[in-house]
Amino acid sequence: MAMAFHDLTPNKSAPQSAKALLGLGSKFICTPKFTTGSLESNFSRLERDMHLRVFFACGNELDESPEWDKSKLYVKSDWRPSFGDIPVWVDCRLSSFYVRLQCLFKKKKATPNLLPFQMRLFKMLSERRDLLFPEADKGLGTCAVLFEQYFEDALVHLLNEDVYQQLSAEEAADSIDMVTTLVNDWLKEYEKVIGKMAYTFIRNHLNDNAESPFGQFYIMYKIHKGMKDGKWPTRPVCSDVTGLLHGVAKWVTEELLPHAKNQPSYFKDSFALKDLLISLKLPHTARIFTADAESMYTNIPTEAALAAISAFLIEKRGDNKLTQALISALQLVFRFNFLKFGDTYWQQISGTAMGTPPAPSAWAILYYALHENELVQRWQQNLFFYKCFIDDVIGIWIPNPDPVQDSQLWSDFCKDVDSCEGHTWKCEAPSKKVNFMDLTISIINNKIETDLYEKELNLYLYIPPHSSHPRGVFTGRISGQVLRIKRLCSNQSNAAAIIFEIFKHDFWPGATSLATSTHSSNMRVRMPRSTSPKVHLNTRRLAD
Q1: Class of residue 264 by CB neighbours under 10 A (exposed 0-12, middle 13-18, buried 19+)
Q2: What is this structure's pTM?
């Protein structure tokens, strides 16, 4: 089992034994001191769920609008049918079931899944006020940094006057009052057009977040980038879950996402990209290229993006009341991002905050896609294929027969890719083989072939088997990995070899026997019809 812990303190101040505990990962769950005793809270939920199903199975209709069919913005209801609406036999059977089930659960002291020295280490680290333990970027494990070090690294971003502006406590309070008024005015004006569910959702978040109305600023350490000038680079994140505008931002995401998905350059994930690529019949001169954006989110110019996306929405949706509500909500979310770091208050005045709901999934995709649509049209003679996944581009380039002219064309194309305001792109020269996302993509006999690609820094930080997770989490990880590899690899013999290596080295010892004891001897992995027929994996052979 791989364990990762990174002591980033200048003098390696963290205890050397810290890896034995923090290396288990932030998802590790300690066993509770006592096993489950009373099932009263669980049974109360089961009783309500059963009553709801019985109530509506008897022909009663839920008096709600069609919004329920498409919107994810809802506030959980505590409503339940009256006991007079539920047949007596239902409660009798539930009561009998509860009595029988409770006999199986007796409160007793549980066996801990941490060793005594790990528990002592946990207590000792909890009392160390000079250390913080943030997560590394890209899921590379837990870090240890000094308290002062963390604040200095965060201030590198916050003191950038082009992006952030510091506020006094009084200015911050006045700003929150202003935002509250703006959101209330927005809800009053557009209540009818956004719908009852969205209105209730936004109003609920506005009330829930009133006591702590600021977004929370934090940083993640980019250990995969290495130290620069004696410091570790960091990624700034502003979580708006506690912010006043969180509900509005979620509604904006729901409205923008369909437009982002309809862009010609959009694809959902690696599986969708692979299906697109393997269907292509390429010219013999075709080459693959990739491009990567540098610090996309903080470099998106707020006002330019608002103007471009607003014009696009008016063109696509018409200048109606709902479009006006969406444009007004965009302005609220991206102009009034107030955040808190420690006991200091800040406003982001430029760029996009990573951690705001529309940022990665819709806002960034749509803003650059508007530039890409024109780019692809200008270069259609050389671009055989072009797709973009947020800040990663993949395309197929058709070279000019004249190498000198082709070199100039490629240079001009790279400049054109880089011409979108606020974006800086690094383009890799076209070749017959590239690594993109989790795929190795090759051109062989004028066809695309794909294999699994894993970065050198992939530490395979799986949840340890002794974590107090449900058993299905571990067996699901195994079957999920097999399915993923089978789908991503176009050559199934290569897929089998990769699966063997993963089971041999990357999973914890005994993983295959765990899968074998949970599943039948032949575990069937169902593949999409467009990708591959049914695949049968004999886990007993893998265990041997």
Answers
A1: exposed
A2: 0.84
